[in-house]
Structures are given as structure tokens and as C-alpha cells.
Design brief:
107 residues, alpha/beta, 4-stranded parallel beta sheet, 4 helices, 4 strands, 21% strand, NAD(P)-binding domain protein
Length: 107
């Protein structure tokens, strides 16, 4: 079975980083793309992940993306599309997304 590719935005802190840690700690093997506004901060998060999860080395990659900037999203999309097609899952930890998901799934 092919390795699943997961994109997590906001991955250098908070919920995004915790999602990445959970994925790295799971039995399943994923290739994880960590996205964030600051490429330096995302690269630092990749280093932190590899220190905590040595088996993640080579399976976690930093990409620059600001989910509030259309040009940044388009550039990240092109990067991902050209190297990592298809994406199996995308996770965004922005609170508005969580609110929409909760609002549509909880009655």
C-alpha cells in the first residue's frame, strides 16, 4: 500500500503541530507536509518533530503557505501538486474551520 500524503497547515504551533505529532506517533506511515506562514518556523517545527520522532526523518517536509493569502495558497498548491499528487488529506487548524466542521456535524 502506498504511503498516504497529508498536508497540515498551521503546523508549526498549537493544534497543527499536535496533529503532526499524532500522525508521526501512529503505526501508519505518512508523508506529512507541514505548512505555515513562516518557512523558518515550519522548518524549526520539522526539526522538533524529527528530534521527537526519529522515524519521521525524510517523511516530514516544510512548505510555506499563508491560508489568508490567495497568492500564497496558489504557490503552495502548485508546489504540492507538482511533487505530491494526490494529497490524501488536508488539515487546517484555523478556528473558523473547526467551527464550521462542528456546526455541520453536531446537532
Amino acid at each position: 500500500m502506498a504511503t498516504k500524503i497529508i498536508l497540515v497547515t498551521g503546523a508549526n504551533t498549537g493544534l497543527g503541530l499536535e496533529i503532526v505529532k499524532a500522525l508521526c506517533g501512529s503505526i501508519a506511515q505518512y508523508e506529512i507536509l507541514l505548512g505555515g506562514r513562516s518557512l523558518d518556523k515550519v522548518k524549526a517545527a520539522v526539526s522538533e518533530i524529527v528530534t521527537s520522532f526519529p522515524s519521521a526523518e525524510g517523511r516530514v517536509t516544510a512548505i510555506q503557505v499563508d491560508v489568508e493569502d490567495d497568492d500564497s495558497i496558489a504557490a503552495a498548491f502548485d508546489t504540492v501538486k507538482n511533487k505530491y499528487t494526490p494529497i490524501d488529506s488536508s488539515r487546517n487548524d484555523k478556528p473558523t474551520v473547526v467551527e464550521i466542521i462542528l456546526g455541520s456535524n453536531i446537532t
